[in-house]
Specification:
The protein contains eleven helices and eight strands. It has helices spanning about 5-20, 25-35, 65-75, 75-85, 90-100, 145-150, 175-185, 200-205, 210-225, 245-255, 275-300; strands spanning about 120, 125, 155-160, 190-195, 235-240, 260-265, 305-310, 315. Strand 1 (about 120) and strand 2 form a beta hairpin. Helix 9 packs parallel to helix 10 (about 245-255). It is elongated, with a radius of gyration of 34 Å.
Length: about 325
């Protein structure tokens, strides 16, 4: 006769029992509620017999059947990080004991042809109330890391936002808008890092202006550092100006396998129309040239020069 594994028999019996109307009886349900199936210490809830592990998720009776499989397949440090809690396990134990207060109530003769498990959390509608909370370090458990866990693209943002430069200040609200639009398409977004940004027009003639060109290399390095976590499927770069964008591009080329999108911040308004700015520049340029010519003519005679404006009218 073939040998029947007691653990296999137990799983098959519990699966049969869960589908049986017998379990719906109040007496048995009350007995199950009063008799916890696990000890309160979370470190010994899961079975520790590594010789009899589930081979597929279908064989699992509860989530704790996955823990010994993880214990066998991942390094000890990674297992401890995932299975244990902080300090003396007080919070972890309280969480697991709290879940013992919830019971599943079987319902019979209910139409299940159209099952809607959607729920709304903080104004966002989800297809199911079961989801994974955000966490890091997933590459310790899967070679593809976070994208393999969430099953959706994960986008990183590298931003040159700061309040000092008017061209970059609009980037303040970009990450939140990108997150909102990406979530509607099933993607997730994180700000991977920020890069410095300085304006040539402000730094010209000021101490430190020689850092302007060098800042491009700093921006490239900062971009590469932001993307070095190896957890993104694509990247969005927020920056404008002739040092910031080349620096972002150099850094992006270090991660050329990632699709890249560069988003400008739009035109910068100065408060003056183009016609007014053109007249002002013309007047200043013309007036400066006339002053220089008049000074050269007057200098040999040591006479104070006449000041001329661009409309050829003489001023005393």
């Amino acid at each position: 006769m073939p040998t029947i594994d007691p653990r296999t028999s137990r799983r098959l019996f519990l699966q049969f029992l869960a589908a049986s109307p017998l379990y719906a009886s109040s007496t048995l349900a009350a007995y199950a509620a009063e008799t916890p199936s696990r000890l309160p210490d979370p470190m010994i809830w899961a079975p520790r017999d590594l010789d009899h592990l589930i081979a597929t998720p279908k064989e699992a009776i509860n989530v704790f059947d996955f823990e010994p499989v993880m214990h066998k397949n991942v390094p000890p440090g990674h297992f401890g990080y995932m299975a244990s809690g902080i300090d003396d396990e007080v919070t972890l134990r309280a969480n697991r004991e709290g879940f013992q207060k919830f019971q599943l109530r079987p319902r019979r003769l209910v139409d299940v042809s159209k099952v809607d498990m959607s729920t709304e959390i903080l104004g966002v509608k989800y297809d199911t109330p079961i989801f994974l909370s955000p966490s890091g370090g997933h590459k310790g458990y899967h070679p593809d890391g976070e994208p393999a866990v969430v099953g959706a693209p994960h986008i990183g943002i590298v931003t040159a936002y700061n309040d000092m430069l008017s061209a970059h200040q609009p980037y303040e609200g970009y990450p939140e808008q990108i997150r909102r639009d990406a979530a509607a398409l099933g993607a997730t977004v994180q700000v991977a890092g920020g890069v410095p940004a300085m304006c040539d027009g402000v730094t010209q003639g000021a101490p430190g202006m020689e850092l302007s060109l060098f800042s491009r290399d700093v921006i490239a390095l900062s971009t590469a550092v932001a993307l070095s976590h190896q957890m993104f499927d694509a990247a969005v770069y927020l920056g404008v100006c002739d040092k910031i964008v080349p620096g972002l591009l150099i850094g992006a080329l270090s991660f050329g396998h990632l699709p890249a999108v560069f988003l400008p911040a739009g035109p910068m308004t100065s408060g003056l129309s183009n016609d007014e700015k053109s007249k002002t520049r013309s007047w200043r340029s013309c007036n400066r040239n006339i002053r220089r010519a008049a000074w050269r003519r007057a200098w040999p005679r040591r006479v104070a020069p006449w000041n001329w404006c661009c409309c050829n009218t003489r001023e005393a």
